[in-house]
Specification:
Elements (H helix, E strand, L loop, with lengths): L7 E10 L4 E8 L5 E8 L3 E6 L6 E8 L4 E5 L2 E3 L6 H13 L2 E11 L10 E10 L11 E6 L1 H10 L5 H15 L6
Parallel strand pairs: 4-9
Antiparallel strand pairs: 1-2, 2-3, 4-7, 5-6, 5-10, 8-9
């Protein structure tokens, strides 16, 4: 159907093989027959958890992100390990980062946050029926948790206090679900 837009890989190589990220450089044939190179980051995928407490408030994190040299407000999230089921990853990450477990999990959506230069995908999950516990942060992981209302989160998106794309999209999902405009399957 989209054959007139498709690029076909004709060769390539892994140019950087890091512990977390890999950089691929491929040669591709363009739809008009010309050849060019495509460089992109290979990423194993991640999950994002939208944890809603019984009172309707949302469990959030503040975490320093080195590439941009600042603390960001984010939803709990984490990388999917090789062979790991995404829902199992979401449950693991929520407990590791926040100490919370959830009784009710619902898949929300898949998002692709950097389509021009990465194959990363993020699976969003809604977590409800939360129960507090002790966080089990990974070595070298530092963050703090807090709660906010959906209206506060929307205000922070509008004002630029929240700029992380997975969090912006998650806030919009929570607002649509709360209003009843969108439903989950």
């Amino acid at each position: 159907m989209d054959k007139h837009l498709k690029e076909i890989r004709v060769g390539g190589e892994l140019v950087y093989d890091g512990k977390f990220l890999k950089v691929q450089k491929d040669q591709v044939a363009l739809p008009d027959g010309q050849h060019t190179a495509r460089e992109y980051i290979r990423h194993p995928g991640a999950v994002v958890i939208l944890p809603v407490l019984d009172d309707g408030s949302v469990l959030m994190e503040r975490q320093f992100r080195y590439p941009l040299d600042q603390v960001f407000i984010e939803f709990p999230a984490g990388k999917i390990d090789p062979g790991e089921d995404p829902l199992a990853c979401a449950k693991r990450e929520l407990e590791e980062e926040t100490g919370y477990t959830a009784k009710d999990w619902q898949f929300v959506s898949v998002i692709h946050n950097a389509i021009a230069y990465s194959d990363e995908h993020l699976d969003l999950y809604l977590a409800r029926g939360l129960k507090a516990g002790a966080a089990k942060l990974d070595e070298g992981e530092f963050l703090e948790t807090f709660t906010a209302t959906i209206d506060e989160l929307l205000d922070w998106v509008r004002s630029g206090k929240i700029t992380d794309v997975k969090t912006v999209i998650g806030v919009f999902w929570l607002d649509k679900l709360r209003s009843g405009a969108w439903k989950l399957d």
